[in-house]
Amino acid sequence: ERAARADAPIRPGALADGAALPLLANLGSADAVDDAVRLGAEGVGLFRTEFLFLDAEEAPSIEAQQEQYTRVLAAFPGRKVVVRVLDAGADKPLAFLATDDEPNPALGLRGIRSLRAGEHVLRDQLTALARADAATDAQLEVMAPMVATVEETRYFTGLARELGIRVAGIMVETPSAALIADRVLAVADFASIGTNDLAQYTMAADRLLGSVAALQDPWHPAVLRLIGEVGAAGRNLGKPVGICGEAAADPLLAVVLVGLGATSLSMSPHALADVRAALARYGTVDAVRMAGAALAAEGAVEARAAAEAAGAPSV
Ligand code: PEP
Ligand code: MG
C-alpha cells in the first residue's frame, strides 16, 4: 500500500511561503506507476490511455481496460488520479478509431471528435474506469482531449457522469477552449492545460515538424496569455486548473505557470525533483510578478529572460 511505502514517501510540492502546489505524474502505461511512486509524485495528473492500445487492431474489452486502470488507481490510494480518455488521431493513430485520409490530421477527427464518432469505444472506456474506481480508493478524475467548444464539454461531462464518473473535466489544448475558459469551466469540474498542443495550435506550428520547432515554444507570450485566461477563469469559478504538457517540466516555467493561476503541475516523473526545488525558491507574490514579466515580453526568449530577472532577489 502506498502510505506504507516508507522507501518512497510522497513529496508534496509547495512554494516558499508554504502554499501547496501538488506535483503529479504523467504516465503512458500502468508499469510507469513505479517511477511515479519512487520519485514522490502526489498522484497522477495525466494517464495517456491511448498508449495502452497503440498496437490493438480492435477496441479493447471493458475487462482488459479495467485491469490496467485498476493497477494505476491502486498505486495511489486516497490520491488524485486523472485519466485521459483515448486521444486518437494525428500523432497518436489507433486502428480501431481509424479515420479516412485527412489532409491535416492535427486539424482532423482527433481526441473527443474521434471518440464521438465511435461513441461505443468512449462508453466502454468510461464504464471500465468507473468499475476500476469502485474497486480502489484513489480519487479518479477523467478528462477529454482536444475539446474546442462548450457543447463538446457538455457532451463529455454528461456522458461521463451518466456512466458513473464522479469528476469530469476537459483538457484545454485548443485556443478556442482557452478563450472561452469561463464558459467551459462553468460546465466542467476542472481543466488541465495541454501545453504541447496548445502551443502547436496557438503558434500554428506542427509539433512533429523540426523546421518549426522554434515557434512551438510554450514560453511565447501568446501561449502564456491563453494560459492566464484559463487560470483566471478557474480562480473566478473556484475550479482547479492543472498543467499537464511538457511546459510543467521546465522548472522556471513551472513557477510562471503557478503565477498564471495553475493549481497543480503534472510531468514526467523524472522532472519532479527539479520542479519541486524551483517552486520552493519562490513565494506566490514572486510567481505572480515573474508571470507578469513574462507576459509583457516580446517573444519566447525574452519571456524566459524577463521571468528570470523578475525572480532574482533584489539587492
Ligand atoms: C499536450 O498536448 O500538452 C498533452 C499533455 O497531451 P499530448 O502531449 O499527449 O498530446
Ligand atoms: Mg495533447
UniProtKB/TrEMBL annotation:
**Swiss-Prot/TrEMBL catalytic activity:** L-histidyl-[protein] + phosphoenolpyruvate = N(pros)-phospho-L-histidyl-[protein] + pyruvate
Kinase found in the keyword field: yes
Its predominant location is cytoplasm
List locations, semicolon-separated.
Cytoplasm
**UniProt-listed Enzyme Commission number(s):** 2.7.3.9
Q: Which cofactor does it need?
A: Mg(2+)
Q: Where in the numbering of this chain does the PEP-utilising enzyme C-terminal domain appear?
A: 12-281
Keyword Zinc-finger, does the record have it? no
Q: Which residues form a coiled coil?
A: none
Which UniProt key words apply to this protein? Answer: Cytoplasm, Kinase, Magnesium, Metal-binding, Phosphotransferase system, Sugar transport, Transferase, Transport
Role this protein plays: General (non sugar-specific) component of the phosphoenolpyruvate-dependent sugar phosphotransferase system (sugar PTS). This major carbohydrate active-transport system catalyzes the phosphorylation of incoming sugar substrates concomitantly with their translocation across the cell membrane. Enzyme I transfers the phosphoryl group from phosphoenolpyruvate (PEP) to the phosphoryl carrier protein (HPr).
Say which family it is in: Belongs to the PEP-utilizing enzyme family.
Tell me the protein's name. Answer: Phosphoenolpyruvate-protein phosphotransferase
Which organism does this sequence originate in?
Agromyces salentinus
Give the source lineage, highest ranks first. Answer: Bacteria, Bacillati, Actinomycetota, Actinomycetes, Micrococcales
Gene name per UniProt: ptsP
